[in-house]
């Protein structure tokens, strides 16, 4: 086996004297001249090619932007201007006066007055899709603006309170009053609005209890469960966010938190 010597590292410029010895100076000058000439030739060829390529890119026609789509508002149908109202009055009741006003989308407000208090309380109200479906169905069944029917039953139950329902479509307006009715749609409509009012007032009272009267929370939750059992709430699903907060709210008694948790599970079943 032949032992070849290990390659050695050479300092910079080590081969330059040897190149001069191996090649004549004139030959090295000639090689350098050839190299520079070749580089210049390549540069002269590359510059026109690049300019031609740039010219091609610049001559490319600009894409025209597509016309902006029409505004969504132009495609929307005009909003339904119809306004609906419900009113209940019984001066001797704890809640002696209730008024609900809303538009055709179910957005509105509820105003109520307590017995012995002069200042009304106004709260926003939002009818759920299911509640509005039932209410609008009863309005349609009544053909309210096209009818002059008297919804008052021959029997008088004024001591239970008086109901007024009204509709205004911007051209026609009508209000009907009764304290009891044999018209199933009219009576069902009044009951649906009463559920909306009871649920809105209950939510208001619970929020008030959380902030100022936490000891009232257990009684209010008992009232909620009674209404839930009797189908006396407009849409129990709307109570889920509030109940979720109540079951972990340390400002109210533990018994109220546990009760809120039980009601929540019952609604979610």
Explain the layout of strands and helices.
Elements: H1 16-22, H2 25-59, H3 72-75, E1 83-89, E2 95-103, E3 107-114, E4 121-126, H4 129-142, E5 162-168, E6 173-178, H5 184-211, H6 217-229, H7 240-246, H8 254-268
Weakly predicted, low-confidence segments: 1-26, 54-59
Strand content: 15-25%
Strand order of the largest sheet: 4-3-2-1-5-6
Order of helices and strands: HHHEEEEHEEHHHH
Write up what this structure looks like.
By secondary structure, the chain is an alpha+beta fold. The protein is 46% helix and 16% strand. It is built from eight helices and six strands; from the N terminus they run αααββββαββαααα. The protein has helices spanning 16-22, 25-59, 72-75, 129-142, 184-211, 217-229, 240-246, 254-268, and strands at residues 83-89, 95-103, 107-114, 121-126, 162-168, 173-178. A six-stranded antiparallel beta sheet has the order 4-3-2-1-5-6, with helices on one face. Strand 5 (162-168) and strand 6 form a beta hairpin. Helix 4 runs antiparallel to helix 5. The longest helix has 35 residues, at 25-59. It is globular. It starts with 15 loop residues before the first helix and ends with a helix. The relative contact order is 0.08. Mean pLDDT is 83; it is low at 1-26 and 54-59.
From the structure above, extract its key features.
269 residues; alpha+beta; 8 helices; 6 strands; globular
């Amino acid at each position: 086996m032949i032992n070849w010597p290990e390659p050695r590292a050479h300092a910079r410029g080590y081969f330059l004297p040897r190149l001069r010895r191996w090649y004549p100076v004139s030959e090295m000058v000639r090689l350098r001249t050839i190299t520079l000439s070749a580089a210049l030739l390549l540069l002269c060829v590359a510059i026109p090619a690049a300019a031609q390529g740039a010219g091609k890119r610049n001559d490319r026609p600009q894409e025209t932007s597509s016309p902006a789509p029409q505004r969504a508002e132009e495609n929307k149908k005009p909003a339904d201007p119809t306004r609906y109202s419900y009113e209940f009055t019984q001066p001797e009741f704890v809640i002696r006066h209730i008024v609900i006003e809303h538009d055709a989308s179910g957005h509105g407000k509820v105003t109520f007055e307590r017995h012995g208090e002069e200042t009304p309380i106004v709260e926003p109200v939002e009818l759920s899709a299911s509640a509005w479906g039932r209410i609008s169905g009863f309005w349609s069944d009544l053909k309210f603006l096209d009818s002059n029917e008297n919804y008052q039953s021959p029997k008088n139950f004024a001591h239970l309170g008086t109901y007024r329902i009204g509709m205004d479509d911007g051209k026609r307006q009508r209000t009907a009053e009764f304290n009891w009715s044999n018209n199933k749609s009219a009576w069902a409509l009044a009951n649906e609005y009463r559920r909306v009012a009871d649920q809105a007032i209950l939510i208001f009272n619970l929020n008030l209890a959380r902030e100022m009267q936490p000891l009232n929370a257990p009684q209010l939750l008992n009232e909620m469960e009674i209404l839930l059992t009797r189908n006396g709430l407009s849409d129990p699903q709307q109570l889920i966010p509030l109940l979720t907060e109540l079951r972990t709210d340390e400002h109210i008694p533990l018994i109220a938190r546990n009760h809120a948790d039980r009601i929540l599970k019952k609604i979610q079943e």
